[in-house]
Design a protein that fits this description.
It is a single chain. The chain is α/β, with parallel strands linked by helices and 337 residues long. It contains 13 helices and twelve strands. The strands form two sheets. Strands 8-9-7-10-6-11-12 form a seven-stranded mixed sheet, sandwiched between helices. The chain has a five-stranded parallel sheet with strand order 2-1-3-4-5, with helices on both faces. Helix 4 packs across helix 13 (318-328).
Length: 337
Amino acid sequence: MKRIMAVYDLDLFYAKRFADVMNQKENIPFAVMAFTSLERLRAYAREHPIELLLISSQVNREEIQDLEIGQVITLTDGETQGADGEGPSVYKYQSSSGIIREVMACYSAGDEPEQIENGRAASVIGVYSPVGRCLKTSFALTLGQLMAADRRVLYVTLEDYSGLAAMTGEEYKSDFSDVLYYFSQGNLNLLRLSGIVHSIGNMDYIPPARYPEDLNHISSEQMAELIRNLAAGGGYEVLILDVGNYGHQAVPILSVCQAVYMPVKEDGISSAKIREFETYAERTGNKEILDRTKKLKLPYHRGFGRKENYIEQLLWSELGDYVRKLLRGGDREAIDF
């Protein structure tokens, strides 16, 4: 059963709109209730335990002091700030994703949250190639966005330098480095993950590690276990994994994937690299990875405009058309799980 998050704001449109948007996010471990009347909030609180209350800074906090509520977070409008000593606050007029990240960060910073079960684990689709400059990341981003049209999708990149921050224009307060830290401490869970993920359209993603060397602090076997945990406890249906430049250490990570897409090129050096990878997988007893791998020769799309719009423009490029055809064509057995 989901916990209850209540939103108490005198602006009826804001409170109801916020609750509607939050309740559509199935990876959020709360059922969100909207209130614009103190009497209705009190009546509800008498019958239902409220774990988390978001309250407008325009509301007198003394009105709710006698209610049994797990944690209270103030919604500020930028001019009116939460009173000193009255707990955390977040700016209310930002994106819903931004609000939920800050709220989850405040909430999970309190008592240690329990692990949360979320039913069926996500299917993991790996995108990997031993060949460079083959549109691997562009393909992974396009695939994730298109699949997110009707599924809950999480995109994870293990690239040293993914370029996501420059392309999205975002300044990340937390990222995959924090995921690695929580995992190493044994307290990575849905609440903490909800405070980290960002969105591109309908696709959620974990911002890449701020320090590439953080990716080297755990073994490839541990990284594989981390991906399993994200798939099992993140509340998603599909996890798109851009494996990055792991070399021979990619094999344990690829073993987690139900399907692997491998962009290739046809020049002699690229073909030789592919053969070496395949030989290594066979020699180490990992031939089943090759059986789940589909090689793709991707179309080179024409140049786009500003880099800030690159990810969205992928959908309408030659590559976007190629991935749409892949999703609805004869390769469905590699994508539908």
